[in-house]
Amino acid sequence: MNAFAGYTVRRIRREDDAALAAIIRRNFEQHGLAVPGTVYFDPELDRLSTVYLAGPGTDYFVLTAEDGTVLGGIGYAAFPLFEGCAECQKLYLADGVKGRGLGRALVGLCEEKARAAGYRSLYMETNAKFAVAVALYRKLGYTEIDRPACVNHAAMDRFFLKTI
To answer: Rounded to whole angstroms, how far apart are CA atoms 38 and 151?
Structure first.
């Protein structure tokens, strides 16, 4: 069965930026994490398409409803602390589609695309308050690791790595 049946997944476009930023910020607000040290305050959050379409080795995939409504997405970019590693980034969904296996499917897609781009492993970081994400990463075979020497978002407290 196709996990994305009834939905479309495509590369990010500039017109997706505002909807994605709103979905991501809403998730942080719901978990009490609309604080400095999270992506919530990143200036790039309002222009994700510019970040992810900037060049090779990075990409972002948007999940939409059949009518084109943006429902979430996932991306990856090089993570220089580990050789051959990309960071799986900004996996967030709108409330109305959570619990349908779409997060799992998006992680699978990210793994596939990052592998095709030449990466050998994926790194993820999150906060314990995103308990569903922590459980998902563990279920998908990500190993929890110690906090890396360089973390972009100081409020993150859970770190994962997986060979892809």
So the answer is: 11
Name 142's Cβ contacts closer than 8 Å, sequence gap at least 6.
Answer: 122, 124, 160, 161, 162
Among residues 113, 114, 120, 94, which one has the least CA distance to residue 26? 94
d(CA 18, CA 20): 6
Of 108, 67, 79, 78, the closest CA to residue 91 belongs to 108
Distance of CA 37 to the CA centre of its chain: 17
Nearest of 87, 78, 84 to residue 142 by alpha carbon? 87
Report the C-alpha gap between 126 and 133 in whole angstroms.
Answer: 8
pTM to 2 decimals? 0.94
Cβ–Cβ under 8 Å, residues 58 and 75: yes
- Residue 1 confidence (pLDDT) above 80: no
Q: What is the pLDDT of residues 112-153, one digit of tens each?
A: 999 999 999 999 999 999 999 999 999 999 999 999 988 777
